[in-house]
Design brief:
Layout: H1 9-15, E1 19-23, H2 26-46, E2 51-55, H3 63-73, E3 80-84, E4 86-89, H4 104-111, E5 127-128, H5 136-145, E6 150-153, H6 171-175, E7 180-183, H7 186-197, E8 207-210, H8 213-218, E9 221-225, H9 231-240, E10 258-263, H10 264-267
Parallel strand pairs: 1-10, 2-3, 2-6, 3-5, 6-9, 9-10
Antiparallel strand pairs: 4-8, 7-8
Helix pairs in contact: 2-3
GO molecular function: glucosamine-6-phosphate deaminase activity
EC number: 3.5.99.6
InterPro entries: GlcN6P_deaminase-like, NagB/RpiA_transferase-like
Length: 277
């Protein structure tokens, strides 16, 4: 078992192979993420440039803050593209219906787009999701846009970013994975069921469509936020572990501008020791 699981906050920062920011609380983490989005858009608007973000539904705590800031500052999103990184699918590899409680598309509409002043919000054509019937279409659109300013997201229990689950392949091969449909790991379905369905694993979708590692790694910046207690171990492996497709987030150690922001609670050791004193 690796020593990094026992690191305290100072040791974690010292040994991290990726930029790590520790804030006081989870709410501070969400505020920082929302502010980063607003600051990037404001800068691009001033330069008459589009803003292209890959965005998650998990974490989601930054969205109410982002919406409030946009409305308060009268910040135009007319030149902003939101590209959601993934979505659950049903047994036939089609989108979950919009009235399904786990639908990411429904979440974004109800909690983000409909909450922003209609005069400010981006048009529907700039609110993108990967399409399970034509996954390559999203990659083509991103190529047309010419950039991804920031990929925002979290880290899953298996080290996945978006739904890029571990694979027994080389780092080089995994880095080239494109947007695609795939099977969600049992570990991911289990931990997600705890947070979303009170532990009803059997009700969790088994399939998903996800943006690829190639697209994530191509972003100018990758900004990840983690806030749950079980992220203590995940973050330590992310920033201190060996770069491997078996823990996908470790590939970001090789990215020139990737970072993880966490609250002080996640900076505490995953466990001080496995041995009694």
């Amino acid at each position: 078992m690796s020593d990094y699981f026992t690191y305290d906050a100072s040791e974690l920062v010292k040994h991290a192979h990726m930029r790590l920011t520790i804030l006081e609380t989870a709410q501070d983490v969400f505020k920082a993420m929302a502010m980063d989005m607003v600051t990037t858009i404001t800068k691009n608007n001033a330069n008459q440039e589009r803003s292209v973000f890959v965005v998650p539904v998990g974490p989601v705590g930054h969205y109410p803050i982002f919406v409030e800031l946009v409305n308060q500052q009268k910040l135009s999103l007319k030149q902003v593209w939101f590209v959601n990184m993934d979505e659950y699918l049903d047994e036939s590899d089609a989108y979950l219906p919009l009235n399904h409680r786990l639908s990411f598309r429904s979440f974004m509409e109800k909690n983000v787009y409909s909450m922003i002043d209609p005069e400010l919000v981006m048009p529907p054509s700039q609110r993108l999701f990967p399409n399970p019937k034509d996954p390559a279409a999203l990659d083509k659109k991103l190529d047309e846009l010419g950039k991804i300013d920031v990929c925002y997201g979290g880290i899953g229990i298996t080290g996945h970013v978006a739904f890029n689950e571990p694979e027994k392949v080389s780092v080089e091969e995994f880095s080239m994975r494109q947007t695609r449909v795939l099977t969600i790991s049992p570990e991911t379905r289990t931990i997600n069921s705890v947070g979303d369905l009170n532990g009803a694993i059997e009700a969790m979708p088994k399939r998903c469509v996800t943006i690829g590692m190639r697209q994530i790694l191509s972003a100018k910046r990758v900004y990840l936020a983690c806030f749950r207690d079980w992220h203590r171990a995940v973050v330590r492996q992310a920033v201190c572990g060996t770069v491997s497709a078996m823990f996908p987030v470790t590939l970001l150690q090789q990215h020139p501008n990737a970072s993880i922001t966490i609250p002080a609670s996640v900076a505490e050791p995953a466990y001080p020791s496995l041995l009694h004193e």
